[in-house]
């Protein structure tokens, strides 16, 4: 299950261990970086939201503050609260931090005061007053011998506190907007501050003055000073001067040289359009936090959409990405080799590709508005998406690295594109349906290989006004010759894709009382399934467009329907949060999964029919095992295979291709059919068939009518296969022993028949017809 673990607020990375601590409502979740799993979680008993937390520098202590004005100290590995006390603040705590010795804790309150706590001796050591408004930033100087604390509040100044005297010794004034972060040089003599006024200031702490103001041309949320004892040539650091990295509203990491105020490196992101390049207040790429992980020489960034990305220094190469909060999940599909990944469309312009083994995520940029629907081509390495931005895109996953990039795009609809379907036999086209009431067929180029800068531009081969209202769903048949569409106008329609150019209407399926949400072709039968807002799922005949079956069981709209178990069962998902499994033959609901707490928009079965993925408006994604009846599917597959082979055998016999027919009959384990082939006067000389033929001879030899054929085959076997080789076959001795008594019986019968025939011949020779002239 992939569920939200971070919904905004503070994020902290452990210094010694590989964990990320995130706030999520009334909980602090602990994410293990190596596995992408939530391994620990602490939660306040009163269910009050956590306003801030701090992890000690030795990674041992976790302290949380809630709206109930309580501070709690945790043994986070056991999720056990070891101590709880009143915060003394009159309003909630806004910021917290530990000193480098892990013994002093500073809390900044919304009441303008700062409290210092000795967590070992368990008492309040300082009460610092003088800040104006919310103290949103508190930070100790890394050199604890200086006993200095820095803070910032609404007045945009940075206060330096001397903890020996409990006095504010100076206020560093430079920023004209909120100060967002502080970072110190390795010698502790220089500090860099960042602000939303689009500047960073380099401070000389000894002289308590600003040495340089660096205009960075974006609202900066975090700054990190690079260690001066390491080399960072890959990111433009060519001198020993102080350099720092900024993260802010533009969503890119940039490296600055403090002495010259020059940007020496800018991170490159996926190519975006000119409209996207303009800075937006709600840009999902905006960076909210930049965290340094010195033990592993990595950086972590947190985006406005609650995504956490890990970069490896010195090259700033992306290592891992985690999605803290998915928002409403609109569609989800299996992709990759053996369905190793899932691609997810959320209430966002980004696509997210999760690796199921590690929960690590790739974030795909390209669409400029919410992505509404997804579909996957047969092999699983190509998939298509459509969005409110009126466009469709085709994406390709590298089979080795798993990296995904866009290879084609098309824009021709005049309204949001709500549904998309891929060709089934081969990668040749996609079909889209839109709120402009049309369906479009887009042909794909034969060679989709491309670069990020050079994406294939698609143009529609055919456009058809399909319905009177929004087109909610389209589906391509397994043979790529038919198209089905479902609409808000309460109808589903069947179209021909066989002709060049226009799409031809074949018929209309009428019967639903409300809009049709989904359509799906059976993989084996001439049947279409539809699901509707009237709470029903229907099966329709493609021959006469009549309704064959109706499935009722959901209490609300049925949003998705898919065939599983080789077409013998249906999976449906609804607005009631339920997923139901139906057996088509009996019209029964055989399984109900209370899968989610809200609408289940995403539903997809794996290509092997062994697992299922669901995505819901409750922001959760779930992968399920053993949902479908796999044994039933395997039996159905065997029956279909038998039918196909029987038809092929019939054709071979009709064409008198006895050699091929014999091999196929033997593989089907049909002694009677093999006998028919033998009677076609075929000399059997295939050694690989000897074992089966010997066994069949035993069966045929038990019947007097077939014994001559059995003996003829046995003669061929004994003539062409040495006795030593025959005896090596499994069960050969038993077969030969089974032949002896019946063969002896047949010989006795033939001997009696021979004696009788000789006697008859003798009698015939001696007979004289009465009255016949003598010779």
From TrEMBL:
GO molecular function: U3 snoRNA binding
SUPFAM superfamilies according to UniProt: WD40 repeat-like
CDD domains: WD40 (cd00200)
Keywords: Nucleus, Repeat, WD repeat
Highest taxon above the source species: Eukaryota
Cellular location(s): Nucleus, Nucleolus
Pfam families per UniProt: Utp13, WD40
Residues annotated as domain U3 small nucleolar RNA-associated protein 13 C-terminal: 646-767
Coiled-coil region(s): none
One Gene Ontology cellular component annotation held by this UniProt entry: small-subunit processome
Chief place where the protein resides: nucleus
GO biological process terms, semicolon-separated: endonucleolytic cleavage in 5'-ETS of tricistronic rRNA transcript (SSU-rRNA, 5.8S rRNA, LSU-rRNA); endonucleolytic cleavage to generate mature 5'-end of SSU-rRNA from (SSU-rRNA, 5.8S rRNA, LSU-rRNA)
WD repeats: 86-119, 128-171, 172-213, 364-399, 410-444, 464-497, 509-550, 551-592, 593-624
InterPro entries on file: Utp13_C, WD40/YVTN_repeat-like_dom_sf, WD40_PAC1, WD40_repeat_CS, WD40_repeat_dom_sf, WD40_rpt
Name of the protein in question: Transducin beta like 3
Organism: Sparus aurata
